[in-house]
Amino acid sequence: MTSADFSHNYSTNFLDAVNRKLPGVTLTDQTGNPFQRNLDYRGFVASPVQGTPQGIAVYQNGVRINESWGDVVNWDFIPEKAIDRVSLVPNNPVFGLNAIGGALSIQMKNGFTYQGVEGEAFGGSYGRVQGSVQAGGQKDNISAYAAFESAYDRGWRDYANSSHVNRMYVDVGARNDLTEFHVNFTGANNLLGNVAATPVQMLNQRWSSVYTWPQSTLLQLAFVNATLNHNFSDTWSFQGNAYFRGFRQSHVDGNGTDVEPCDDPTTLCIGNGLPVFGPVDGPATPNTLGTAFLGELDRNRVATNSFGGTAQLTNTDRLFGHDNHVVMGVSVDHGNTKFTASSELGTIDPNNLFVTGTGVFINQPDAGLSPVDLRATNTYTGVYLTDTFDVTNRFSVTAGGRFNYAQIELRDQTGTNDLLNSSNRFQRFNPVIGGTYKITPNLTAYAGYSEANRAPTPLELGCSDPNHPCMIDTFLVADPPLKQVVAHTVEAGLRGGWGRDARTGVLTWALGAFRTLSDDDIIQVTSPLGVNNFGFFQNAGQTLRQGIEAKLEYRYNSWNAYANYTYVDATYRSAITLSSPNNPNALTNDAGAQFVNVTPGDHIPGIPAHRFKAGVDYNVTEAWKVGADLNVVGSQWIIHDYTNQSPKVPAYSVVNLHTSYQITKNIEVFGLINNVFNQHYYLSGAFYQTGGFASATPGVTNLMAQLSDPRTFVPGMPLAAYAGIRAKF
């Protein structure tokens, strides 16, 4: 993808542009915020949500930007206007840890690649207002580039999913005949509202309804990167970078609570009569809340400083008279994270489900809730080499590999939870081999095998005990160790093209098959306690993601059309027993915990099998362009429905329209309509704990107790229209 693909002529944000253009990609949503969605590629995910098992490595200017704490990817940090090009690569060990499903490489603009000044403003439905300016240029051997973006979106859900996004990118560079050097900075200060999934019975009454709030996330970034390219000779060159990344996240989440009146209703307890505050035999918190309905405000803060770099040598000397391309390098990435969390007892407004804090902070380790203060350090070291050898002018072979070594330390800072302290080491060599054969000038065959590994993140290592589940993204306890994930991928296919000019049209196409078998896959499992938002991580044996991918693009005169289809068959390959509370099809053991027995062949929830996209653009005149895009996503099993017994999340299709008009050489106006037929559809689904919210006074009817269906969904955005203007100089 190039910078033109990210134009707001076609889509309103980075993720929509990627979803529109690339086969195998779908977008899912856990937060109800357009800036914080999940990117799913062939059943592997890059997500901004802490606690989501990650499977895609994302790079910006050669720096892996999966955050150290949970490997999350904060898409809202990426200045869209500053993107020069994006490449999506399937499983490849050269891209290091977490590239088990693939890697997304983002290259930003600089003053050598972009010259001029551009300003843009657009807005539309749900209070969307967004503006940007970018400028770049060079003088002799010096270049400079800067982009600034600001956006506000009120959100279409009730109450609190508005977004305030402010981000910038600056690059200064210098070069001569042999060397090019750049220093760039990415900064962001974003406040994002979240509303998450809503019980299906509430959505049936009002499509924009939310369950509890407030839910908001403050995200801040200061990211400095220096890159160097130097040619020693015509065949030897060096590429390197060094970076520092400061990341801050503060999250507030209004939820239900397990707190209830004790046997003596004048005090409050949690979890089988344990006092809300202090030791088991200590005093319980006085109950002064009357008939208020009980909830809690869960807060956490992540502060990470990470730094590192990569040094790489490239050689293109001929070998035995044949063209040969060798890349070898080493990378080191170090992160230092301070994680704090607390839970405040709250009351819930019965009219709008808003949670208000009471000033009482829950501290009950035996019930899985106590303040957390943890320091995590991780050091990831990689050494890699890959060689592409042209056996003939039609047949090329690539072989290589990467050795990864991960060191992860967890240290409790409260002085009360020494069992949380741990030292973890993971290491592995991952090979890759493949080949391409040009059958004809217009037809090429390719095939390859690769392996990649993913070490558990500090967050996952700190929450892997089913007997002590965590408030995901909030609380950590002492845990058994997790194994690293190892993925084995085989891929093969054909690609080609036809036509060379506008008279006949230009056709490009590709058809391939892929198969990724993952050992010791890490999944998030719901707490056996059945409390909403609680869970833990565990290894789930082998999982398999396999399928086919096809794409087609045709350009003829004023027409440009595309279509692509991906089929993903994602299944468990090991028999395993998983906790599944609130699942109407779960079994119950003697201790009252609900579980399911997964058998090989059961499908992995949350991964749609069918993905189809098509679109067309037409130049009505030289100045006026119109187009339409169709996105079809197949049905998927509800998250945590491991044995596939509940009804699926239904398939959906969305049609988007776009148009642009070049008023003058320098001024262009554009407009978009998303979900033009105003379809109601679900992006994802899960189970939740029914029964409503208890009152501080025993015997009072629970709030929202009438909600009996355990399914909860994230609804898709209704029809939305936007218009904007762009000026270039």
From TrEMBL:
<keyword id="KW-0798">TonB box</keyword>
<keyword id="KW-0472">Membrane</keyword>
<keyword id="KW-0998">Cell outer membrane</keyword>
<dbReference type="Pfam" id="PF00593">
    <property type="entry name" value="TonB_dep_Rec_b-barrel"/>
</dbReference>
<feature type="domain" description="TonB-dependent receptor plug">
    <location>
        <begin position="2"/>
        <end position="103"/>
    </location>
</feature>
<keyword id="KW-0813">Transport</keyword>
<keyword id="KW-0812">Transmembrane</keyword>
<dbReference type="InterPro" id="IPR036942">
    <property type="entry name" value="Beta-barrel_TonB_sf"/>
</dbReference>
<dbReference type="InterPro" id="IPR012910">
    <property type="entry name" value="Plug_dom"/>
</dbReference>
<comment type="similarity">
    <text>Belongs to the TonB-dependent receptor family.</text>
</comment>
<dbReference type="InterPro" id="IPR000531">
    <property type="entry name" value="Beta-barrel_TonB"/>
</dbReference>
<dbReference type="InterPro" id="IPR037066">
    <property type="entry name" value="Plug_dom_sf"/>
</dbReference>
<protein>
    <submittedName>
        <fullName>TonB-dependent receptor</fullName>
    </submittedName>
</protein>
<dbReference type="Pfam" id="PF07715">
    <property type="entry name" value="Plug"/>
</dbReference>
<dbReference type="InterPro" id="IPR039426">
    <property type="entry name" value="TonB-dep_rcpt-like"/>
</dbReference>
<keyword id="KW-1134">Transmembrane beta strand</keyword>
<keyword id="KW-0675">Receptor</keyword>
<feature type="domain" description="TonB-dependent receptor-like beta-barrel">
    <location>
        <begin position="171"/>
        <end position="676"/>
    </location>
</feature>
